[in-house]
Amino acid sequence: METKVTPWDVEGSIDYSKLIEEFGVSPLFSPMKEKLTSRMKEGSHMIKREFFFTHRDLDLVLKDYESGKGFFLYTGRGPSGNMHLGHLIPLLFTKYLQDAFDVNLYIQITDDEKYLYKKDRKWKDIDEFTIDNIKHIAALGFNPDKTFIFRNSEYIGNVYPMLNTISKKITFSTAKAVFGFTNETNIGFIGFPAYQIMPTFFEKKRCLIPAAIDQDPYWRIQRDFAESLGYFKVAAIHSKFLPPLTGMDGKMSSSKSATAIFLTDDEKTVKNKINKYAFSGGQVTLEEHREKGGNTEVDVPYQWLKIFFESDDEELMKIKREYERGNLLSGEIKKVIIDKINSFLKAHQEKVKTVDINKYMYTGQLAKEMWKKKYLPKD
Amino acid sequence: METKVTPWDVEGSIDYSKLIEEFGVSPLFSPMKEKLTSRMKEGSHMIKREFFFTHRDLDLVLKDYESGKGFFLYTGRGPSGNMHLGHLIPLLFTKYLQDAFDVNLYIQITDDEKYLYKKDRKWKDIDEFTIDNIKHIAALGFNPDKTFIFRNSEYIGNVYPMLNTISKKITFSTAKAVFGFTNETNIGFIGFPAYQIMPTFFEKKRCLIPAAIDQDPYWRIQRDFAESLGYFKVAAIHSKFLPPLTGMDGKMSSSKSATAIFLTDDEKTVKNKINKYAFSGGQVTLEEHREKGGNTEVDVPYQWLKIFFESDDEELMKIKREYERGNLLSGEIKKVIIDKINSFLKAHQEKVKTVDINKYMYTGQLAKEMWKKKYLPKD
Q1: Are strands B206-212 and B235-239 parallel, antiparallel or unpaired?
Q2: Does residue A368 belong to any structural domain of this protein?
Q3: CATH number of the domain to which B84 belongs
Q4: Would you give the DSSP letter of residue B305?
Q5: Nearest to B53 by CA among B24, B86, B22, B25
Q6: Is residue A15 part of a domain?
Q7: Does B15 share its domain with B78?
Q8: Contact across the interface for A167 and B160, Cβ inside 8 Å
Q9: Are B40 and B96 within one domain?
Q10: In this structure, are A336 and A264 located in the same domain?
């Protein structure tokens, strides 16, 4: 399968070193890594283990933070289906960053984009997914007075005039080159990139975006004209993709149900999916496994532990060692990840049941301020 | 000069018979003409004298009216400059239609389009022209409880979700073919046609648009997909262009100040402009004029009298006869039009001073209803 990394499609085997070069982003080195991880109570393993691995202008963001100018966070979600672990993990990392730096966070729900993207998508479906997805996001426990979750279709009235300023900066030619639009792309979808860029101008501070690297093209366009409008070039910290259950290629996808653990999956489903579909780096026979050991590089259960579910370095090292030596079996490492995921999902599902999304959307302090704001054109 | 008729440019000598063929519109014949004019207390001469000369589905609109289903009117204004007579005349015709049929009217102020259109346009300017233009429009005396004047930048929140349904129906390829977009067109302007189409779906009745024929391309796109959304194909009644002061080619244009009488021009300015710039069909010398007579076909003062300012047929015939016979001199016919325009503008300018635009925008019955409505996608 050909490798493909666009904001809408990730396929094939991904060579992250090549992406660094192609996208022109900077690898995350020390001491910047330490500056982040030293403040984080949770989630720092996602940096240490290089799941978040590249950035743009993160050095400037940290400088602004240290000098008291501050910064803000922005991320988003396209509500085109049920959410899975691949969606949740970057959002959790964002929460850890918010906790670490105590900053404002804007979460854009691109109901418009997801409706526009496919001809046969019904608004009713997008609308339902939107409410559902917002509940799952709000359940992560962001600071309710410093987090604004907004639906594009609902907040448009507050941003539209300034949105036009952004649109004026982007020609079809640019949009075509960056997003692969064609003559058959509809005119709404062509216009959408302006709205995804808009929140980077919500405050006159640097904006830091934690997101998978496939979303980077949006930010390159923003960086071309942000300063001409009197704003900062957006900064970003990029993650790799959470590998799908089925192996290291591509990314977890709602449309390929066997590749994903959904946030609503029950214990039995999780267990069955992992036992049935999780790509194993173990050997074919028990004897062979005891002799040669498992390959952690391609073993999805191990990779998930490393990326997210086992934050304890020693514990992870132990698993790696035992698995590679053949002492830990394929079924056993699957059992470890099944238990981790189930305990995580159980707690999450409880929170979803009782979460109050209104705090984040309308009644929290930041939300209230945002509904009062009207973004006018910058000229 | 090459002839060009697009929604943004009208240049050169216009062959209206050719336009009928090119655009695929129907000439306005009897008895449809009589059905309109018999109800109109004012403005019927604009039909009888074929200034409004073609239509789409006007027969169906009249049928719906007669059967009690009703219809509604929609027109608009792009607030990119000061208004002149060329802008006002179709609006007045719209008012006469509203009076004749007692129907709802929606007037779209495309502040977004005008801001998006040109790179160096400042929002501040568009914003000022918008308020100014709305005053001039409101001063025409539309029914305040059946007329909704709305700024696109302000009303977007009420229409955006459904706007996306419209956008999904229009590919870049279609938009390019109809409007001549290029790779250098900005993505906001590319998206705009959806918003201009949106008001044709404000009610589940037939929508009739009185407008100059250059705006027709928008409606052809609407007619391609309206029924697939459960709405009616839009109907239209098209006018020719008010000739610029300087002669019969092109149309009156704010950007060529010598071609236009602005609604704010004072008596002296009107007099000077007409005496100086109005293209005359009179002969070069007095003797020659007395002998050969004037040519009313190209005489701008005569054409303006015919199109709008002299509604009395007998009076117009007399002027034509006397001018063509050489009894009425070029300066004398100019005097006639100067007096007509000045008396018209004087009354208009008085109304502008005291007009309450809030009735039309927010507090009238239709306006209030429209601010409560939210247009969701149609699927």
Answers
A1: parallel
A2: no
A3: 3.40.50.620
A4: I
A5: B25
A6: yes
A7: yes
A8: no
A9: yes
A10: yes
Residue range of the domain that includes B135: 4-245
pLDDT in tens, chain B (379 residues): 567 777 667 777 888 888 898 889 999 998 999 999 999 999 999 999 999 999 999 999 999 999 999 999 999 999 999 999 999 989 999 999 999 999 999 999 999 999 999 989 999 999 999 999 999 999 999 999 999 999 999 999 999 999 999 999 999 999 999 888 999 999 999 999 999 999 999 999 999 999 989 888 889 999 999 999 999 999 999 999 999 999 888 778 777 777 899 999 999 999 999 999 999 999 999 999 999 999 999 999 999 999 999 999 999 999 999 999 999 999 999 999 999 999 999 999 999 999 999 999 999 999 999 999 999 997 7
How many domains does chain B contain in total? 2
pTM: 0.93
The DSSP code sequence of B146-192 is: SEEEEEHHHHHHHHHHHHHHHHHT-BHHHHHHHH---TTSBHHHHHT
As for the ipTM of the complex, it is 0.91
Specify whether A130 is located in the same domain as A59. yes
Is A165 contained in some domain? Answer: yes
Do residues A163 and A306 share a domain? no
Residues of B with CB under 8 A from a CB of A: 112, 115-116, 119, 122-124, 153-154, 156-158, 160-161, 163-173, 175-176, 181-191, 193-194, 376-377, 379
Joined tokens for residue B136: 């001039």
CA contacts within 13 A on the Cβ side of B313: 8
Preceding amide of A90 cis, omega within 30: no
Q: Are residues B78 and B227 in the same domain?
A: yes
Option in A160, A173, A191 nearest B184 (CB): A173
How far B154 CA sits from the closest chain A CA (Å)? 7
